[in-house]
Amino acid sequence: MTTTEDLTTSLRTILEKYDTSRDNLIPLLQDIQEHLDYLAPEAVSLVAEHLDLSENDVYGVATFYAQFRFHPPGRHRIKICQGTACHVRGGGMVLDAISRKIGIVPGETTPDGNISLERVACFGSCALPPVMVVDDTVYGRMTPRKSEKLIEDLE
Ligand code: FES
């Protein structure tokens, strides 16, 4: 378990790589998310302080981009492609089916911490649309029914 002190120390190490120019906001948030897997409130606060912005400014920019998460990911991470090839072959229906089944929208994690759901632009597997990734396994040619079955098989 990471303590608040550990978290602050690791975040400060990341912050030190960037000067205080506001142009660093997105790269800094990306770097932190890569490190923590999400943008913790402490991270947003330290970034705001480092770049001399308000926390509202940082949240305002971060929430504009679908890539940023504000909650820790679940034990299982489900990503559903909404890139063009997948979208035209029903990626939206797969996403809706999963979203209904587990009761969360993309960007959220189920209250039991078991599953998080994300929409992704393109996995580079466009020959197999629509594509869904469960943890590190890529599944192609999904249908709402097939995707629901995959979810049922998750612990
Ligand atoms: S558009 Fe879905 S994998 Fe490329």
Main attributes?
4 strands; single chain; four-stranded mixed sheet; elongated; alpha+beta; 45% helix; binds FE2/S2 (inorganic) cluster; 155 residues; 7 helices
Question: What can you see in these coordinates?
Answer:
- The chain is α+β, with helices and mostly antiparallel strands.
- It is 45% helix and 12% strand.
- It has a 4-stranded mixed beta sheet with strand order 2-1-3-4, covered by helices on one side.
- A hairpin with a 2-residue loop joins strand 3 and strand 4.
- Helix 6 packs parallel to helix 7.
- It is elongated.
- The two termini are 22 Å apart.
- Bound molecules: FE2/S2 (inorganic) cluster (FES).
- The site of FE2/S2 (inorganic) cluster has 12 residues, from helix 5.
Write the SSE topology:
Layout: H1 4-15, H2 25-36, H3 41-51, H4 55-62, E1 76-81, H5 84-88, H6 91-102, E2 115-120, E3 132-134, E4 137-139, H7 144-152
Parallel strand pairs: 1-2
Antiparallel strand pairs: 1-3, 3-4
The protein binds FE2/S2 (inorganic) cluster.
Query: C-alpha Rg, in Å?
Result: 17 Å
Determine the structural class based on helices, strands and strand pairing: alpha+beta
- Helix fraction, binned, reads 40-55%
Continuous helix count: 7
Number of beta strands: 4
Mean pLDDT: 93
- How far the N terminus sits from the C terminus, by CA atoms, comes to 22 Å
Described by the principal axes of the CA atoms, the overall outline is elongated
Q: Which ions, cofactors or small ligands are bound in this entry? A: FE2/S2 (inorganic) cluster
What portion of the residues fall into strands of 2 or more residues? 5-15%
The ordered string of helix (H) and strand (E) elements is: HHHHEHHEEEH
Largest sheet: 4 strands, mixed
Instruction: Describe the strand arrangement of the main beta sheet, using strand numbers.
Output: 2-1-3-4
Low-confidence stretches: none
